[in-house]
Input
Amino acid sequence: MKFCTAINCMDGRVQLPVIDYLRQKFEATYVDMITEPGPNRILADKTDLVLIKSIFDRIEISVKKHKSEGIAIIGHYDCAGNPTPREEQKVHTLNAVKILKKKYRDLEIIGLWIDENWNVTELKENF
Output
């Protein structure tokens, strides 16, 4: 029984595509979901320290209690919590990946983009 962690938007349209992708990517049985509106921007902006602490507290539960083997931060098309263009959201997502990698050096950390057709793409550093 393996776990991974998704830091995902609360938008219900992106839940199943993310779960399906991460279960395959990390060969996980379960995906712990940490949801907020626009979490990629929350982490990248580093301004709402209370919310950031809440996200990291929940990551800690997933990593320590469930032994999560990987973490994904997600941005998506038509996000009400981060209503910025796709390229700007990708920057937010990759910046959030960098922040997460500083704390969780031993885990694979990835950024995902969900497009208007709910397809999942793994982001690379030089998109």
User: Anything to note?
Assistant: DSSP finds four helices and five strands in the chain. The first strand starts at residue 3 and ends at 8. The beta strands are 3-8, 30-35, 70-76, 108-114, 120-122.
